[in-house]
User: Fold Branched-chain amino acid ABC transporter permease/ATP-binding protein from Streptomyces gilvifuscus.
Amino acid sequence: MSSLTYDLTLAGLSVGSAAALTGIGLIVTYRATGVLNFAHGAIAMVCAYALRQCVVEWGWPLWPAAALTLVFLAPAIGVALERFVFRPLAVLGGDPAQTLVASIGVFVLLVGGAALLWGQGARDDAPELVSADPWGQLAVVLVLAAGVGAVIRWTRFGRELRAVVDDRRLAVLGGIDADRVAAAGWAFGAFTAGLTGVLLAPYVRLDPYGLPLLVMEVVAVAVAARMRSLPVAVLVALGVGVAQSQLTRLHPAGWGGPLLQTAGANLFVVALLVAALALPRVGTRDALPRTATARVPTPPGAWIVAVVLFLLPLGFAGSDLHTSVQVPALGVVLLSLVVVTGRGGQISLGQAAYAGLGALFTALLAAGRFPGLPRLPELAALAVSVVLVAPLGLLTGWPAISRRGLALALATFAVGVGVSRFVFAQPYATSDLGLGRPAGFDGDRAYYVLELVLLFAALLATRALRSGRTGRALAAMRDHEAGASAAGVPVPSLKLQAFVAGAALAALGGGMLGMGLRAFDPGAYDPVRGLLWFAAVVVLGADSTLGALAAAALLVGLDAGARGGVAAALIGVLAVLIGRFPGGPYEAWRTATQRLRPHHTTQLTQPGTAVRARLRPAPTPTSRSRMPLAPTPTTPGPGAGQGGPGGGHTARAEGDAGASVADAASVAGDGTAPAAGADAAGATKSLAARPGERVAAPQPAAPGGARTASPQGRSTVGSVGGGGVGRSLAGVRRSAPVVLAVRGLQARYGGFTALDGVGLDVHRGQVAAVIGPNGAGKSTLFDCLAGTLRPARGQVLLADRDITRLPAHTRTRLGIARTFQQLAVFPSLTVAENVRVGAEQGRVADPGAVDRALRLFGLDGPLRTLPAAGLPTGTLRRVELARALAGSPRVLLLDEPAAGLDSAEVAAMARVLKALAADGTALLVVEHDLDLVADLADVVHVMTAGRIVASGPPDRVLDEVGP
Ligand SMILES: Nc1ncnc2c1ncn2[C@@H]1O[C@H](COP(=O)(O)OP(=O)(O)OP(=O)(O)O)[C@@H](O)[C@H]1O
Assistant:
């Protein structure tokens, strides 16, 4: 080995050792707590500053100072974070998205705090703890990795640690002190962070922004190790370190030379991009915490105050006005986050990249240095740069289609870092690229006026995106992605639209920011800013344009008025606290003031942990007979497991031509004659069981269970309606066409076969029920029919059209609507808006369908304007049903529609469902409530272990199933 190769290998091992340390720390913290600690780099930076403070400023000897920093300070930071930030979040339910925002908050807080304490400038006198000799560092890393691996694998503590990560609540029930385990994980993680910072600081610039970013760039090492394997992390870190070092020898020629050289010198960033965008993702469970995206009510008069405050700087002069110029520009950048994160619910940590690209392109276009385009006047350059940057929104929009939560955070962070390193750090961007202001707007005051006009335009654009059909679809996607798809919202293309619109807005704001500064400054758009802006928008009310403007004013104002870092520190504190205050600071203040009032009766209706708990269906009343939990042997009926006559459906009684939804409404009400149409009838009588309403309560199950109870239930229902509606009126002829056909469906989860050759037919106007024990595969069947799960084999046909490979929203638009076992409503939208989403995106876009569905399900009146969050389960089931119906589906798939409803609500719902069938809708119902099945269904399919084992009329099949 030549001496150059040897030297470069040693240098690479040194860098790789530091990266390996980071990887070990991130993995241990993640395994102990489930948190990918975005603040890891910031802890490293704080420890490096602390050691420098002790040694350089206070003159302490090196080793005692190092011991204090690494053995006391670093673990203390870790334990404090666990105790005061992450443990309260874990107690509240351990929402991974909330912990992600909190860890970004800690990052921003520590960076801001360090800037406040030690100033923003870089230090080059960090003490050297060990010599540059990599062998020592390597030995430290290997010993640490081996030690940690041994502890995790072979000790009791290691077993406890794995148990806590798998299921914290279960581990606690098993007697494990989860807090102790988490605290140990945090302490060790922070220790490795401190060690990394102290080892790296002498060889890189020690500053509050640069060092944390450098450390976080190597997060790829942990991701490549799937956040599990320490040996893989160490090997990847050392390999990338050595390769990066060796590549510095290459000096490729040609136009791509500088880029290749940059790639070689930033191999960890390349690894980050590959790990975040190409490798299997980690932590995809959640999107944003509901608290971060809650609907934030605008305080009365707030807009007037905002307008006055934004006009105030016109009276300023000098540096005050010069500083104010940054506010509208930053406001526009933050509005982009309102669209992407606030409304669309997508984590975007890379928004600074789009702002920077906007500024860079504007500067290059205005200077005539943009390849292939002539020199443009400044305003035209700004407009063209917005158009050019908008499609680049796909860089983060594309990953967002298949990523959520942590995986999306990593992907957008990686794009931000990549653009910063590979575009902003190039010579063309760094070589003093000036940017003039448009002609006639050179002075600060004139330019500020121009900015206000552009801000106003951006506000109008944001408003257009947040209101109307698109706004409702975005909010639906944010609140419940699967529910939105089921309602017909084209989720993938909507995400792309949100990111493209967000990139355009960020580019506009970035260009304005550059013009305000009269230069393209890469530092103004570095990835740390991206984290800060994200945190600022999240804590000041992500779905609030006013919140974005307030955040812009706060960030610029605080940093100009006080020492740099105050704004970051404040935003960090708020982000850390966000999990404690559902709805953000305004809601926290409102709740606090309500608590102070002696007789407050208002119920907090913002979506949050408690609300989400309420959205979970309550257990179905146990008094009703239910499917036995264990599979019951049944005799397969003729044609079991196949569609078609004999197995597929049973005819209802004939003579039902006049039955309609309107009739059902009359049944639900007081038994008077139906009005002339669904509208009129539904307006007064509906599914809602109102006080004093005469509804047919199901009879208690007599010995014999469903078989005995069902006929009684039916006759009672029929008699209330004057004998009109019920099985006899809602009948379907044997000759009714097949609407939904399932053939030989097989579905797998990994190696487990959840569905095995399932086949059935659902006819127009027929109610088919699927029953079976828990785990039989009923929900899996629904997922395959609705398009959320791709079957391994088999076919799904909708009116003879093969829809097996179509996505969920396309199926909805073709006429399949579904409800979910776990409620899938959109908590931040009102009841009427929930239903409107279904009407706008469904098979038939019919504006009148909203009111009809609302009336039919008793959701009209004051209820329609209430946010869905906080409404009782029974009401929400009706909202979900109304939404499904509002799109005029041909087939309704209902997954346990009776779960969480009381007897009266179930009876009323049954009436409406029968009437829907009578009107020609095909219904496929998964239900455990055998009384309801007996009352409702024309044909029953029994599923066990992924197969249909019996099919036939309810009386016969339920006889076989037994009580
Ligand atoms: N995402 C998944 N990954 C792995 N296995 C799964 C997954 N979802 C479901 N299963 C398994 O597939 C089988 C069928 O589950 P499914 O939820 O379809 O049953 P089910 O009949 O709807 O049960 P329940 O009545 O409890 O809802 C079960 O054994 C379940 O454990």
